[in-house]
Design a protein that fits this description.
By secondary structure, this protein is an alpha+beta fold. The protein has two domains: 1-29, no CATH class; 31-121, 2-Layer Sandwich (TolA/TonB C-terminal domain), CATH 3.30.2420.10. Helices cover 27% and strands 32% of the residues. The chain has three helices and nine strands, in the order ααβββββαββββ. The strands form three sheets. A four-stranded mixed β-sheet has the order 1-9-4-5, with helices on one face. Strands 2-7-8 form a three-stranded antiparallel β-sheet, with no helix packed on it. The N and C termini lie far apart (61 Å).
C-alpha cells in the first residue's frame, strides 16, 4: 500500500462515523435484548411456507411493507406496518399474522429474527 492510500485508510478508520458503522456491522448478527436477531452474516433468513387466503383488497395492485418478528417456530410475532394505505392497515396486519415460515437459522439451529416483508395488496 502506498503512502497516500495508507493515509486515506488511517483517516477513514479514525473517523467516529466509520468506527460507529463498523461496530454496528460487527453487532448486526448479535441478538438484541429480547434475543431477536437481524438476518445477516451466518443468520439464514426464514422461508415462507404458505400463501394467505385473504389478501388485503384495494383498487390498484401494490405492496405494503411491514416489519415483523419471525419466532423460532416460524410463527409471526410482533408486526408493525411501515407503509400501507391507511384504510388497509388492519387488513395487512391480519394477513401477515396468518403467514407461517420455516424459521431463520444460525448454525443449523432456529433463531428469532426481525425482518421487513412485502405484502401484496391486490384487487380480487
Amino acid at each position: 500500500m502506498d503512502n497516500s492510500m495508507r493515509m486515506l485508510f488511517l483517516l477513514m478508520t479514525s473517523s467516529p462515523r466509520v468506527q460507529e458503522w463498523y461496530a454496528d456491522w460487527e453487532r448486526a448478527g448479535a441478538p438484541d435484548t429480547k434475543g431477536i436477531r437481524r438476518v445477516c452474516g451466518d443468520v439464514h433468513p426464514p422461508k415462507r411456507l404458505d400463501a394467505p387466503q385473504n389478501q388485503p383488497k384495494t383498487g390498484e395492485p401494490g405492496v405494503a411493507l411491514v416489519r415483523a418478528v419471525i419466532g423460532r417456530t416460524g410463527v409471526v410475532g410482533d408486526v408493525t406496518v411501515i407503509w400501507s394505505l391507511s384504510e388497509l392497515r388492519d387488513d395487512v396486519l391480519r394477513a401477515v399474522r396468518q403467514w407461517r415460515f420455516a424459521p431463520a437459522t444460525l448454525d443449523g439451529k432456529p433463531v428469532a429474527v426481525r425482518i421487513v416483508l412485502d405484502v401484496p395488496v391486490t384487487r380480487h
